[in-house]
Write a sequence for this structure.
């Protein structure tokens, strides 16, 4: 239904329709942002041989969704992503100020030769890519780099009609 | 071999022989305490339905041991134990002082009516059982309450001939 409407709106252009759909799912996700996460599933992924284990808690609103195999598959996929991509923070807000401070100092040294007018912007650019690489929600999904983890969750919100959030993740490695 | 010797030493008394063996394995474990943990395995246990996930890293000295299915089973069993018993600390040394302070204050209130001479001992007794319940290594193993997790690891040290340690554990639950 939604897809057909988006295709019409995009005048039959599939790529354009995809963008419209993605925008819609992000809008739907933010509409549901103040609902209560009363259910969810904990999932673990063990990397071949047991060198790495990743675990996530993917929360939703009701057991109706948390018991859905597709929802559970999503939790497992995100655990696999965490094992592979080793995110450090869940979101930008979760990146602690003291961690950031160290990175900022390194980048400030790196741009010491940049003219002063451009220096601040250069540091911000470096901080931005530093975070984009380390923040779970902003990382490209390991099984489909065309979508971020946030995008993946936004589509799930649209599919299941509930607020969905990664509330915790851990990654344990042997070395 | 070891069992036969212990049985002889105990004059055929199986219970006595068990105590002797346990003492020996603990002695062997402490002899290996300064060796290097160069290998290990990460294992995860998911509780039925995905309400709880527990993960541990069980470290040893060589890949020869870490690839042993019995060693991997031990890591999985400890993960299952963590899911079931929800330990808060790995060892007494890992129990943070601020956490302890809160418990100590509660216990001090509880024994306010105990005569002053006995009060300190009463608090220490309460602290001891508080920790014994929450420290992974001191908890009775969920699959065999006759042995603690430390005892379980000590026997593995004896069996595999390497230093073995739980270096990290995490427990993630939905609620």
């Amino acid at each position: 239904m939604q897809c057909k409407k988006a295709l019409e709106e995009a005048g039959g252009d599939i790529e354009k329709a995809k963008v419209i759909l993605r925008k819609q799912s992000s809008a739907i996700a933010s509409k549901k942002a103040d609902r209560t996460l009363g259910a969810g599933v904990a999932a673990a992924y063990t990397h071949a041989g047991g060198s790495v284990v990743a675990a996530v808690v993917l929360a939703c609103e009701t057991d109706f969704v948390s018991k859905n195999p597709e929802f559970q598959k999503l939790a497992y996929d995100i655990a696999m992503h965490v094992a592979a991509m080793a995110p450090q923070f869940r979101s930008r807000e979760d990146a602690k100020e003291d961690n950031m401070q160290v990175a900022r100092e390194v980048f400030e040294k790196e741009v010491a030769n940049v003219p002063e007018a451009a220096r601040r912007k250069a540091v911000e650019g470096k901080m931005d890519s530093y975070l984009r690489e380390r923040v779970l929600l902003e990382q490209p999904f390991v099984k489909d780099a065309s979508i971020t983890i946030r995008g993946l969750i936004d589509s799930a919100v649209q599919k299941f009609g509930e607020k969905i959030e990664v509330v915790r993740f851990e990654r344990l490695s042997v070395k």
